[in-house]
Amino acid sequence: MRQAAIALLLAWAGAVAAQDTEELQRQLRDRDARIRELTERLESLEKKAEPDDDLLRALERTLVLQGALMLRPRTYEVEPQFVYERWDKDRPPLRYRSEAAVTARAGLAWDSQVQIRVPYAHVSTLGDSASGLGDVDVALSHQLARESGYWPGLVASIAWLSRTGSDGLDGRVPTGGGFNVLQAGITASKRQDPLVHYATVAYADARARRIEGAYVDPGNTLGFRLGTILAASPGSSLTLGVNLAFVDSARVDGQSVPGTDTVSGTLQIGLGTVLSKSAMLSLGGEFRFSGNVPNFRLSLALPIRF
């Protein structure tokens, strides 16, 4: 009788244990299903908040235009652009310059990017005007460091500006600068949501050339850019910046030309708005406050990404 009672008790305990195990497994399955559901909802919300980081956010697109961010590898961008520049009548000989240009960019491996810009210009002076190819430039950029903690992101670039435009030695109005220029610079950027601050230091080495028997060196330029980009919304951005350039004196046959060294400065403002996954509209203006530069420069660009 005792053995039968013990056997019955053990059987009952086993059944209870089996039921507890099944209940625990069921609860674990329910918990896992709930976790999966919550995870899927969170991922869906994140995708809706930032549907396509580089493609749909004007902030990142503007950083690429400012040279502070690289395109992703095997990403391409074509940017038609129109520029209008105006000089005062009391600063002859130039009056205005309008320019239609196309810029092509390609994202490369190892956080690099290549860019080429081809302009076509119409230039007017007090007495004449001319149209033709401007100076073509090619640039290669590389992301030296990504932003981390207190450290900013760093981008280095090197560019060659070729004197493909008319230099005016034939008596016509020049559509180019008349000199080949080697440029190098580094840009730092730091996020402070919803702002991104950027700063650039650049040096331009204008290559001397012989003109009518004289060896002419137009002088090198040290440039600085400071600015801030505001992400007004995911699809629009505002830019405010200051550009400064310190130009050395020009030299002819090694002799300095008095009055040719100068400091120029402009105030830059810009608006960027995303039109679609591939296209963005960029409007900009630069306004002179010192130096031998246009009184104002207005630009309209339509970067299209592939």
Task: Tell me briefly what this model is.
This protein is of the alpha+beta class.
Q: CATH homologous superfamily of the largest domain, by name?
A: monomeric porin ompg
Number of DSSP helical runs: 3
**Molecular shape:** elongated
**How far is it from the N-terminal to the C-terminal residue, by CA?**
86 Å
Report the portion of residues in β strands. over 45%
Q: Would you tell me the overall average pLDDT?
A: 86
Structure summary, number of beta strands:
18
Class by SSE composition: alpha+beta
Poorly predicted parts: 1-18, 48-52
**For the largest beta sheet, what order do the strands appear in spatially?**
1-2-3-5-6-7-8-11-12-15-16-17
| Domain count | 2
Kindly identify the CATH topology of the largest domain.
Answer: Porin
Task: Describe the secondary-structure layout.
Elements: H1 2-49, H2 53-56, H3 58-65, E1 76-86, E2 94-108, E3 112-125, E4 129-133, E5 137-145, E6 153-161, E7 181-192, E8 195-206, E9 209-211, E10 214-217, E11 221-233, E12 236-247, E13 251-252, E14 255-256, E15 262-274, E16 280-290, E17 296-301, E18 304-305
Antiparallel strand pairs: 1-2, 1-17, 1-18, 2-3, 3-4, 3-5, 5-6, 6-7, 7-8, 8-11, 9-10, 10-13, 11-12, 12-15, 13-14, 15-16, 16-17
